[in-house]
Automatic annotation (TrEMBL):
Subcellular location: Cell inner membrane
Entries under SUPFAM superfamilies matching the protein: Cell-division protein ZipA, C-terminal domain
ZipA C-terminal FtsZ-binding domain: residues covered: 88-218
Annotated organism of origin: Thermomonas hydrothermalis
Domain of life: Bacteria
One Gene Ontology term from the biological process aspect of the record: division septum assembly
NCBIfam families per record: septum_zipA (TIGR02205)
Membership in a protein family: Belongs to the ZipA family.
Protein name: Cell division protein ZipA
């Protein structure tokens, strides 16, 4: 089996992993409620001032009740790169692949990712975040094509992979064309640093004609999904 066939198989497996990762999201939990202690009343229904013993017993009872309350869960820590919404309608993909007979090594990937402006975070993969607004989610993400698609930093020195998958999901936190203009140069930059090649979603070498075609498609996507001007009806 040729190196290119193995690469195509690996990329196909990775895409199924990426789709599952994109729709993954956490669940929130609710904190428990406390209990109230009733006040003493007399025969006539009027409230009576409790004696010292009653106060001591009530105070002790409240302390026990407070001790029995379920502890509120700590706030969920949101790692950088988590999407604000799991809803998307399109994925644009690129690959940075090793040249024939070679692999991409973990330590080199870490260095290249940092130089390309990527942040390690959610799902244990790399993300390109919006400058100054990380809470908006990733512009695009970078995963390992080897299942499960993540990077184990504790084993990064021994990691070798045939390729990396770059993917952006639309809608993104920036216009689609801007997201592409951020991802494509980053992929080229990492390919240069790793002595690899950039492939399109069909695993063919990414050329100028293909780049222009993708730009035109994403420009049309932005026009189609742009908000209508204020005061203008969306009806025909």
């Amino acid at each position: 089996m040729s190196d290119m066939t193995l690469l195509r198989i690996g990329i196909a497996v990775a895409m199924s992993v990426l789709l599952g990762a994109i729709i993954y999201f956490g669940r929130s939990r609710n904190a428990g409620q406390g209990r109230r202690v009733a006040r003493a009343t007399g025969r006539s229904g009027e409230q009576q001032a409790p004696d010292a013993g009653t106060v001591d017993r009530a105070s002790a009872h409240e302390d026990v009740a407070q001790d029995e309350l379920p502890l509120a869960p700590p706030p969920e820590r949101v790692l950088p790169g988590k999407r604000v919404s799991d809803q998307f309608d399109r994925i644009v993909t690129l690959y940075v692949a090793a040249k024939a007979g070679c692999t991409l090594r973990g330590p080199d990937i870490l260095v290249a990712a940092e130089k390309a402006g990527l942040t390690f975070g959610y799902m244990d993969i790399f993300h390109r975040l919006v400058d100054g607004r990380p809470e908006l989610g990733p512009i695009f993400s970078v995963a390992n094509i080897i299942k499960p698609g993540s990077f184990d930093l504790t084993q990064i020195d021994s990691l070798e992979t045939p390729a990396l998958a770059f993917f952006l999901t639309l809608p993104a936190p920036v216009p689609a064309l801007d997201a592409w203009e951020t991802m494509e140069p980053a992929a080229q930059r990492m390919a240069d640093l790793l002595d690899g090649v950039v492939l399109d979603e069909d695993r063919n070498a990414l050329g100028r004609q293909r780049i222009q075609y993708i730009r035109d498609e994403l420009r049309a996507y932005d026009r189609q999904n742009a908000a209508p001007p204020l005061g203008r009806s969306t009806r025909w």
